[in-house]
Design goal:
Strands 1, 2, 3, 4, 5, 6, 7, 8, 9, 10 and 11 form an eleven-stranded mixed beta sheet that branches. The chain starts with 12 loop residues before the first helix and ends with a helix. Helix content is 41%, strand content 18%. It is built from 18 helices and eleven strands.
Amino acid sequence: MRLNVMAITLCAAAVCAQQSVAETSEVWFLNWSDYIDPSVTESFKAGHGQNVEIEQYGEANVAESRLSAKGTGYDLAVISAESVARLAETGALKRLDMSLAPNTAALDRELWDLFLSSMPQAGGYAVPYLWGTTGLAFDREAVAERLPGVATDSWSLIFDPENAAKLADCGIVIADSSEEVVAIALAYLGKDPHSRAPEDIDAAFDVLAGIAPYVRSFDSTLYDGIGNEEMCAALSWSTEALTPIMEELTDRFEFVLPKEGANLWVDVFVMPVDAQNETGAMQFLNHVISPKNLTLSAVYNSGAIAAPITLELVDWEAYDVPALTLPPEVRENLFFVSDRSIEQKRALERRWRLMQVGF
């Protein structure tokens, strides 16, 4: 979920809809901002003679709303996996012809099967792109100064109101993702992160409301804040937190997966129902998920390596981080966010926004 570009550059529906079926020399691709190694699209053009026109977005809800409206003009999209079931339910997606993407055979089946067990409705509609985790990033110096001796391997670093109050002056930021953050709060409380029980959701929001006065922002753009050391603690996507660390923009921050459990996420390829260039889209998908190209984009975005890789492409000294290599002992403490219906998601979003403004 690389989100270090602030602008959202979505094309207008009227413009996108004008693409002709005959225009098969281009693949129109909707993707998170700056979320693919440029060399991958360049090599596709060189090898297949087709341009890839990329439209970018910065928030998961924007992409879901765009695709659910249909008539997008996109041939392929990368979206958050938790959106797939809702989009499939509304008829916004086409089933993928996996025979046109033989490189899917090289993907990590263990992770994908784990995902499908929590969201079986995604089967046939999605192919995994990049994996990551949602964990805790913190400034070692700032935390040690304000909370000497405090445990930094627990969500209590920011979910305990006493701790949050002491970190408020240097900045707490929480990813603007209601489904993930509520699930994490449930895990922190020792509850099932997939729970839909009203009393459990109430308890999760009690935790969040208790620290909301000390949170600087609920933000979808964390890369710059961490890289510029403008915050001291963040509930962050691994891509956002680890990229500035691995790019050596800061050596003060550490990213951990707290002991209570953390979210494992995957961004996936889907095909909008109105795709015009299906063949080109599947050729591009197959090109991107080849072991070499998938590794290029994973390293470019600090995504987890979840497929056979070309070793010489990876600086293993820098990349050997549990949140990126996902060894078995780390996977055991991770969970996926399970899907919500459209109505459940709207209710959660409403409560999420009200919590942020103090209601």
